[in-house]
Design a protein that fits this description.
DNA-binding, binds manganese (II) ion, 149 residues, 6 helices, Arc Repressor Mutant, subunit A, two-stranded antiparallel ribbon, 3-stranded mixed β-sheet, homodimer, 2 domains
Chain lengths: 149, 149
DNA sequence: CAACTAAATGCAACAATGTTGCATTTAGTT
DNA sequence: AACTAAATGCAACATTGTTGCATTTAGTTG
């Protein structure tokens, strides 16, 4: 919810402003990675105008507070879905609908750290994106395939 | 080696050109992620001039052939170090010196796929970057720390 | 509630990065 | 040496990202 993010902002000493609420609302609603200019365009369409500089600065802040994430394979920003303890970020990215789901798995981090340690590397945290199909898109794909069989 | 990459180019029906050799040479030499314009600047410094459009097109091609990779946390391009069977890409990124080392681990992929499958997701391949310290930087860090103790 | 102030925003100007169409050049072939 | 598809360069353009500074505003204080 946007509400909780605003509480987090305030508790960290940042002001709750129109810009910050609007950006969070768009990210919440869309649930796909959005670039700063994407966000500006979407807001425009709903009659709200925000300077792109403000959007950049807002996204910077949201990411610093782990209220949003910068997706790397796809390049946009999404709403953070988990409460963050460690610094490891893992995502499933659906190549069908573009939706993204965040997850955490300590055992996996542990295994990955072990592998890199064996190669002499001292890992502090991980970033990973798994590319594939979400349940919906997988089902649709199966249906479509069976149509032609 | 650049030589092998050129052989690969030719065997795939692409021409071996000055641009392609130069871009590969820079990537080989530097071993850190370089942006297209980084590459242009480095070449400039050694008296070689390449149009930035050509560099973009060259990097596109090298990536399509898995002769280079586009790094996501850091944003630049690096030389591919492994022969690619599957589509999974994993890297260790040193936050000390910026160097990058590529690795592959089937067991890890298997585990990660299992975790996402339990969440209803059908994973096709993975991309991950482990952030930490390479052996050299880790050693240096230890030495520096002991200086002040 | 009115005054106050540090923080946030907007604006303008700029810098960097990335894309497209088309004329020219060139690698590899005949 | 001639040929040709592929690659390059160039120009023009589009998009994305950054900085300094004047103005506005959220949250606080009296
Ligand atoms: Mn998160
Ligand atoms: Mn590789
Ligand atoms: Zn989907
Ligand atoms: Zn290092």
């Amino acid at each position: 919810m946007v509400q909780e993010a605003m509480v987090e902002l305030r508790s960290q000493g940042y002001k709750v402003t129109r810009s910050r609420r609007l950006v969070m609302e768009v990210l919440d609603k869309v649930d796909k990675p959005l670039s700063p200019y994407d966000i500006q365009r979407l807001l425009q369409q709903q009659g709200e105008s925000l300077n792109h500089v403000t959007i950049y600065r807002t996204l910077d802040l949201l990411c610093r507070l782990n209220l949003a994430h910068h997706m790397l394979l796809t390049g946009g920003f999404i709403r953070c879905a988990l409460s963050h303890q460690g610094g490891c970020h893992r995502f499933m990215v659906c190549r069908g609908c573009g939706s993204i789901r965040e997850f955490i798995d300590d055992a996996l981090c542990h295994e990955e750290s072990g592998i890199t340690r064996d190669l002499g590397f001292h890992t502090e945290h991980h970033y990973s994106e798994s590319l594939g199909l979400c349940p919906d898109c997988y089902r649709k794909r199966l249906e479509k395939d069976s149509t032609y069989n």
